[in-house]
Write a structure and sequence with these properties.
Blueprint: H1 16-24, E1 28-32, E2 35-41, E3 48-52, H2 61-77, E4 84-90, H3 99-122
Parallel strand pairs: 3-4
Antiparallel strand pairs: 1-2, 2-4
Helix pairs in contact: 2-3
Length: 123
Amino acid sequence: MVPRRDFGRARKLRRKKQFDDVLRHASVRVGRGPLRLAACDNDLETPRLGLIVGKRMLPLAVDRNRAKRLIRESFRQADGLPAMDVVVRVALPGAKVSLADADRLFGAFAQIVEKRQRARDGS
């Protein structure tokens, strides 16, 4: 089956409770550059993404929207992401978020999950 590359409603975290659950019960936490990621397992077949890009971190709306666009695009293009709920937030005030930052973040996330899976299978 070919993985879907769209970013429809089924691939988004939309409710505050969903964000809170991921942040509270995260089994994976990763930080790269200005971005921080928290993730926990979900009961679905696809990963879902939630974004936290606050005004305190990026005061200009154009910068917030650009950061969200770049993170979503990197999430869409990332191969082999597990079925997890993922929350990404911008954690450094005034940071310039780039596509490379987001790619590094999701790459590190995939490596951590793969390493944990191998350890679980090898036990």
